[in-house]
From TrEMBL:
GO cellular component: cytosol
Alphabetical list of SUPFAM superfamilies matching this protein: Thiolase-like (SSF53901)
Record-linked PANTHER family: 3-OXOACYL-[ACYL-CARRIER-PROTEIN] SYNTHASE, MITOCHONDRIAL, POLYKETIDE SYNTHASE-RELATED
UniProt GO MF annotations: 3-oxoacyl-[acyl-carrier-protein] synthase activity
Organism of this sequence: Mangrovibacterium marinum
Record-linked SMART domains: PKS_KS
Residues annotated as catalytic: 163
This protein's UniProt keywords: Acyltransferase, Fatty acid biosynthesis, Fatty acid metabolism, Lipid biosynthesis, Lipid metabolism, Transferase
Superkingdom per UniProt: Bacteria
Name listed for the protein in its UniProt record: 3-oxoacyl-[acyl-carrier-protein] synthase 2
Family label: Belongs to the thiolase-like superfamily. Beta-ketoacyl-ACP synthases family.
Length: 413
């Protein structure tokens, strides 16, 4: 079977560095931290009192005011990023064959804010829930809402694989298009877990940083003194399109999506395999799927969450997969700036990789102060300052609780 080519023709995002792709890129290349004390709730009693929140996000730019209360924040973020991506793509929705256009979305949790608020309000004297409780809360609703908004009747589903969710969504969209089962997808992911339940839940696991005295430097991937990830929120959306379909309508093309890998650690509920076996395997399979050699990759946007165990396992996996070429790669963790967007991480990090290719700039891994003796210092993590480099192929990693691993490979167009 001869596979069709898949290109990316539209981008959209709302995330802790900005409410547009341009604002996001300015923050990335300038090494801006999106972390600060949480503003939307009282956090005095929480071990962690900061996160990477959205700033100045106005949902009424994307939905009518009366619709805001009918949607969980994670769905509102999806609406925003998808609308930006559709507008950016220049698609004429009046002539598009909507039977061959679909939505494959990623969400690690879904409507956690809705779930928390309604369960908190329930009691013996008030034994009922809001009628929107179920549709606001379920993890697949954002993808369904996007198909309803744009009338896309093609494949529509949601991937739920923790922090790998958006990457799995993109790989599925890629496969449907290259096998000829669709012409176009809105794909990506959204997450909105910065609330009492999300904060306390991750705190109880000791998964997130407690550096309350210095939030801006709390996300410290690969630094000796890292103490956990920083929660982020938002959404990233990409328009995946069959190459000939895009070319026929004169679309601008950002990049080509050329391969994806999927694997499992099969090791532990939350901890990575200490030798990075699943991570090495997923990168190997992504390279095989793309039909390229390890030496072809110029840049890896790593999972790099700033956790004690994960930040040791991933460099080991890179060395196992890439051999000597590992020392010629540019590597960076943009989570040092955005925090960890959980199920949406793969989407905004794919966008970061595309922008790095487009501009010839590797975004930095900020907040590096002290080398970790357990991490090879000869690897180039692009610490603290962006640098210029031509990027022809970029690989982006996402690894989720449960041992879910996904890697995607993008090619400069």
């Amino acid at each position: 079977m001869e596979f069709k080519r898949v290109v990316i023709t539209g981008l959209g995002t709302v995330n802790p560095l900005g409410n547009s792709v341009q604002e996001y890129w300015e923050g990335l290349k300038n090494g801006v931290s999106g972390a600060a004390r949480i503003t939307r709730m009282n956090v005095d009693l929480h071990k962690t009192q900061f996160a990477c929140e959205l700033k100045d996000f106005d949902p009424t730019l994307y939905v009518e005011k009366k619709e805001v209360r009918k949607n969980d924040p994670y769905a509102l973020y999806a609406y925003a990023a998808a609308q930006q991506a559709i507008e950016d793509s220049g698609l004429d929705l009046e002539v598009l064959d909507k039977d061959r256009a679909g939505v494959i979305w990623g969400a690690g949790i879904g409507g956690l804010q809705t779930f928390y608020e309604d369960v908190k309000a329930y009691n013996i004297e008030r034994p009922k829930f809001n009628p929107y409780f179920i549709p606001k809360m379920i993890a697949n609703i954002a993808g369904g809402l996007l198909s309803i908004r744009y009338g896309f009747r093609g494949p529509n589903f949601t991937t739920v694989s923790a922090c790998a969710s958006a990457s799995h969504a993109m790989i599925d969209a890629f496969n449907y298009i290259r096998m000829g089962k669709a012409d176009l997808f809105i794909t990506g992911g959204s997450e909105a877990a910065i609330n009492e339940a999300g904060l306390a839940g991750f705190n109880s696991m000791r998964a997130i940083s407690t550096r309350n005295d210095d939030p801006a430097t709390a996300s410290r991937p690969f630094d000796k003194d890292r103490d956990g990830f920083v929660m982020g929120e938002g959404s990233g959306a990409l328009i995946f399109e069959e190459y000939e379909h895009a070319k026929a309508r004169g679309a601008k093309i950002y990049a080509e999506f050329v391969g994806g890998g999927m694997s499992a650690d099969a090791y532990h509920m939350t901890a990575p395999d200490p030798e990075g076996k699943g991570a090495a395997l997923v990168m190997k399979w992504a390279l095989e799927d793309a039909g390229i050699k390890p030496e072809d990759i110029d840049y890896i946007n790593v999972h790099g969450t700033s956790t004690p165990l994960g930040d040791i396992a991933e460099p080991k996996a890179i060395q196992a997969c890439f051999g000597d070429h590992a020392y010629k790669l540019s590597i960076s963790s943009t989570k040092s700036m955005t925090g960890h967007l959980l199920g949406a991480a793969g989407a905004i990090e794919a966008i970061a990789s595309i922008l790095a290719m487009q501009h010839g700039i590797i975004p930095p891994t900020i907040n590096h102060f002290t080398d970790d003796p357990e991490i090879d210092p000869k690897l180039d993590f692009t610490f603290n300052e962006a640098k210029e480099r031509e990027v022809n192929y970029a690989l982006s990693n996402t690894f989720g609780f449960g041992g879910h691993n996904a890697s995607v490979i993008l090619k400069k167009y």
